[in-house]
Each structure stands twice: as structure tokens, then as C-alpha cells.
Amino acid sequence: MNEMLTSEVLEQKEEALPLEVFQFVFEGERLRDFSKNVSETLGLGVGFLKQCTFKQLFLAINENWRTLLPENLEDFGDGNVFLPWVVGKNALPVGFTLCVLKAEGEKFYLTLSPSLAPHHDLKKSGINDFFKNPMVFEQVALRLQLAESRLHTYFYNYPGIFFSQRPDLSFNFIGPEMTEKLGKMVPSFYRKGNLYLSLFHEDDLKVFLKELSRVGPETKTFSLNYRLRHPHEDTFLYFTDIRTPHFSPTGLLLGYEGILIDNTRQAIAEKQLTQSTWKESLATITSGLVHDFSNVMAGIYSLSELYCSNLDKSHSMYEGMDQIRKSSLEAQKLVRRLIDLNREQSKEKTYHNLITLINSQKDLLKVILPKQTKIEMIFSEEELPLYIDDVGLRQMLLNLAINSRDAIQKNGEVKIQVIRVKKGDHILQHSRNEGITATQEGVEILFSDNGCGIKEEHLSKVFKPFFSTKESTRGSGFGLYNAKLFVEENGGAIDLESRQGEGTTFHIYLPLATFEEHLAYEKKVVDNKRLSFVVYCAEDPHNFEIVSLLQQKEWEVAVFSDVQKLKKYLLEPVYTPNAFLCIDLCHDGKVEALLDFCRDKHPAMKLILLVSGQNPDVASSSLNKKVDYLCSEATIKKDLIPLFEKLLCQ
Predict the structure, then answer these.
(1) What distance in Å separates the CA atoms of residue 437 and residue 429, rounded to the nearest whole number?
(2) Edge-to-edge strands, sheet with 107-116
(3) Is 418 helix (H, G, I), strand (E, B) or coil?
(4) Is pLDDT at 549 greater than 70 in this prediction?
(5) Between β-strands 532-537 and 556-560, what pairing exists: parallel, antiparallel or unpaired?
(6) Smallest Cα–Cα separation from 201: which of 256, 167, 238, 232?
(7) Which residues of 128-156 are buried (b: 16+ CB within 10 A; e: fewer)?
(8) How far apart are CA 430 and CA 432, in angstroms?
């Protein structure tokens, strides 16, 4: 070896650690290439570098590494090795990290970079060791900054709340997210362990304390599930607590470190799924019973209708028989509303009169609300057409009624008011969003009660999923959330105003139909070759079972009780419906002219006449000749739908 490091040079190296990264390429044990700074910074001659072996090179850099280096590179394998710059009594927690990477054949790539000692060795160093060398102090500061940055990232991005707890269950530390969950009470947890325990659900506290009593020096990380009551709201939060106990060498419990994971939504969702599964089964059973009851009432209605038609009005039995006929008809209508609500919401929109839909729900509102509740409806009788899914609107009204039911006391009052608004009018006045204006002509529904009202801190949460101030067995937390979804899906807006002790008013804005909304959807129907019906009746067509049966077949159904609006619809040039179904009530005089209009404007459209409340055989011969098919309510149950399919698919 031409050049060797003298003891004087080694002493100088102990004083100053080179703060550079060095790279080497070995083939076998011989050095074949190296970075330029190896010769310049380490003071090693080029001649020496070209002929040295692995061990000669590293002993030339630092003689103290003799006992730390293996005899050859093969013994290193792939990995990192820490080589302290100073060894012995005066050792510093700083040196080089040697990274060895084996390539193809006998090639090795080595990188030597300055670094602090590994974590386990760093623990043995005192604070004075870091101040002996500025580089060491700089490295320590950088590592602390990196650790702090990582810790900050974990705290704010990890889906949990880190904590450190003393043996008395007071906290050394708890993540800031806990304050967001439980409010201003959290800082007190640092002083009083029993304050945290006071929030436990009674059943969970017993289990929690029992598990902690079993903890010993051999206990490893374990988890617990429990509920904490919100100190300012009548709700519970569900947590999974994953904690690790720490003991002194003598077995004394020093405390716990762990993480809390908020499972509230998951826990409630699992409960809701279990309840919905049962409700689905119950709905299937109930639906069958309702249909059976509807069949019984249809039989009673048909018989009473037949007897009434054969009795003179002066007959002593006529009045009683007529009352049976009317009552059975009302019972059928009520059953039909229950069936409509029970069917899955299809989200298929058609044209409906808002006033008719609200009036049709009054009987069901009476069932939901307490018996002594006074229901007041304030609106004009003018038609207010909406292009919506009627089931969604009915369910929205019932959800609002359920909300009122739990708020009102004796002598409760519920008021439903409908106000027509023009484009640009201020809507949702007196609610939290009273500054918005109507984007087009529409209606505002005000659903009010004189109940206990809603707490101010809850007003911003009532439309959120899972939020409920009721017991878990009474409230799902989805009623008002679903109402909001329905309104927004139909281009509207919803908000509320409430005062504790005075009551609550929900404001719902919905745009009026322009009778052009159906065009895009009808084009889609044509593309899918889907059967479509236009239904007319002087009364609300939804009162008739045939409309529901058509919708259950997933056919497009547009219903009208106004002749002029029906004609406007049929005059649209884009689309021809498959069939026009006219429901004739006791020889409605408009029917014959309407059939002529349909035949003239849409010759290819099938015309179907459903005679209600009378025998189809007594229909005039002129009407019989104008239609493609004549039927009565008696054929609805099993024959009518297959006949329609056969007729329209010819």
C-alpha cells in the first residue's frame, strides 16, 4: 500500500466527520470505480484507490472500523450497516450508514452517507453528546423535525384519535379530534379520570372496568367497544378503543397508550340494516294481507253497486246499501294509498296535481298524528302541476308528520299551507336560508306544528343522515334526510325555522311543471321500446287501481284530470304514446269527444275505455265502436294487464 493514514490524520478525523455522500463500485473484492469526492475529501490517493480491496479502503477511511467490518463483501449481503465515526469511551452517536447492493455477477454498489446512530443506540447518548459536534446537533434537530411532521400527519390524517392515559384514567394526551366529538368538556379529561367514565353507557362501563381489572405485565395490545354519551346532546357515540398497557420493570402499571376509532355511523348503519331486513319481511307479509283485504272490499263494493242499481231510491234498503257502497269505495282508496306507499320508490316522474296529492294523504296523516291533533290545510283549489315521483312526495309528507308527532303534546296542531310563487320571489322566508329566490315559477309548502321545537344547536344537523335525538328504537335518522334528497332531486329547496316551546315550520319549494319535462324522458322510453300510457279521468286517476298496476309493470304512465292539459300533452310532435286509457265515470259527456280527438291526432295509438261503476255492456254502441278495447273494473285483477300487453304488442 503506497499511502497509509498516520495516527495524526486519524486523530484529525475523530474531530471532524466528513458531511458528504461517497459512492463505490466493487467487482469481487477490488474497487473498480468511485465518486470524485472520495479522493478530494477523504485525502486518499488515486493510486491507492485503484488497487485497494474493500477492507483496505474502509480501514483507510477509519481504523476504528476494523472490528465492525466483515472479511469480504459477500458477508454483508444486501442491507444497511451503521459505522460510528468514533468508537470507545468517547464515542458519539454519529457516523456513516453503509448501504450495500449486490448486482449481477460479482458487482457490488456501495453508498456511504453521514447519519445519526440507530434509534436503540441513540437512547444511550446523553444531551451533552449532541453539543460536542455541530453536525450531530444538526442531525438531531432534523430527525426531530421529521418525527414531529410524521406525528402531525398521523394525528390529522389517520382515522382515529390518539391518546395517552394514566393508571387513574386521566389523560396525558388526547387528540384534538375528541374536542370536535364531545365539545368543551374534553380538556377536563386531563385532570379527572372519572369525568371520562361518567360519559360511558351504563352497560358498557361495567364491561370496560372488568377488562381493565384483568390487565397485567403480560397483557399485550387489546381492544374494547363502548358507547359515550354526548355531554350536550341526547345521543351516543360508538367507539373502538385499541390500547396497550405499559409497566415498570417491577410490574407497576404506568399507563396506557392507544387510539380511539369512531364507529358511530357503522354501528347505526348495521342496526338500520337489521331493522330494514325485518321491515322488508314484514312489508312483504303486510302487502299480501293488504291486497287480500282490497280484494274483499272490491267484492263488497261490486255487490253493493249491483244491489243499488236494482233498487229504487225509495226502497227502505237503498240508503243503507248505498252507504255500504260508499264506505267500501273509501276503504279501497285507503288501501290503495297504503299499497302505493309500500311499493318501492321507482323515481319515475309523471305529472301530478299537488293539491290532489296532499288531500289524498290526509287520512294517513290522521293515523300517524295523535288523535286530538287538529290538521289544518290552507290552499286554493287551483291545479298546481308538478313533474315528480308521487310516492316520494307522499313519503316526504309522512316523514314530516312523523317528526311533528314526536314533538307535539296534547291539543297539538299541524298546518299545511301551499303558496304559489313567481320566478324571482323570495322563498324559504324566516328560515335559515331566507335570502334565496325562486329560479322559476313554483310552489312553497309550509308544514308547521306547535310542538316543543328544535334546539338551536341541532338545527344545522336535522337533514344529515343518521342524526336523531330520539331513542334508537324510535328514530332512524333518515326521515328528514330522505325528504331533503327528494326535494333536491326535483329541483327544489328545503329548510326550517324553529323556536323551542313554540313549534317548527318546514319550508319546501318545488318548481311547477312546464309540461316539457317529459320530452327527454319520453325519448328514452321510445329508445327502450317501453310501453307507455296516457290515462284520463274526470276524478283523480290515482284513486283507481289500474294506474298502480300499470306503474308496477314499470310502464310509463302520464295521468290527467284536465282535458285541456291532456290535449296539450297529446299535441306534442315528438312522441306518440302506445295507448290512451279513458276511465269513464257514469257516462262522462266529455269522453266521446275526447276519443275522437285522440283518434284524429294519433291514429296509431290504441284507445281503451274502462267503464267504472257500471256494467260495460250498457255502454253506448257509439262509444264501443270508437275504442280498441272495452273493459270494466271487474277484469282488473287478473286479466287486464296481460290483455293490454297482447293488444299493444300486436
Answers:
(1) 10
(2) 30-34, 22-27, 107-116, 94-102, 79-84
(3) strand
(4) yes
(5) parallel
(6) 238
(7) ebbeebebbeebbeeeeeeeeeeeeeeee
(8) 7
Compute the mean pLDDT over every residue in the chain, rounded to the nearest whole number: 78
Please tell me whether residue 431 adopts helix, strand or coil conformation.
Answer: coil
pLDDT for position 520: 54
Q: At how many degrees (to 10) do helices 640-648 and 545-552 cross? A: 60
Using the Cα atoms of residue 285, residue 287, residue 288 and residue 289 in order, give the sign of their dihedral.
positive
Q: Which three cell numbers, joined as nine digits, stand for 640?
A: 287486464
Distance CA 312, CA 597 (A): 37
Nearest of 317, 349, 359 to residue 511 by alpha carbon: 349
Rounded CA separation 364/24 (Å): 86
Check pLDDT > 60 for residue 535: yes
Q: How far apart are CA 482 and CA 280, in angstroms?
A: 18
**Are residues 391 and 352 in contact, defined by beta-carbon separation less than 8 angstroms?**
no
Three-point CA angle 404, 410, 416, nearest 5°? 40
- How many Cβ atoms from other residues are within 10 Å of residue 435's Cβ? 10
Alpha helices by DSSP H, listed for 418-576, are 479-489, 518-527, 545-552, 563-570
Q: What sign does the dihedral 351-355-357-358 (CA atoms) show?
A: positive
Q: For the chain, which domains are there?
A: 7-144 (3.30.450), 158-262 (3.30.450.20), 345-514 (3.30.565.10), 518-648 (3.40.50.2300)
Q: What are phi and psi of 382, to 5 degrees?
A: -65, 150
Look at the alpha carbons of 482, 487, 489, 490 in this order and tell me if their dihedral is positive or negative. Answer: positive
Residues with Cβ within 8 Å of residue 127, at least 6 apart in sequence: none
DSSP string, 134-175: HHHHHHHHHHHHHHHHHHHHHHHHSSSEEEEE-TTS-EEEE-
For cell 286530538, name the residue.
372
Max mean pLDDT among 114-128, 340-354, 367-381, 547-561 falls in 367-381
Residue 316 or residue 615, greater confidence? 316
Phi, psi of 228, rounded to the nearest 5 degrees: -115, 130
Instruction: Quote the Cα angle for 510-515-517, to 5°.
Output: 70
Question: Is the whole-model pTM more than 0.70?
Answer: no
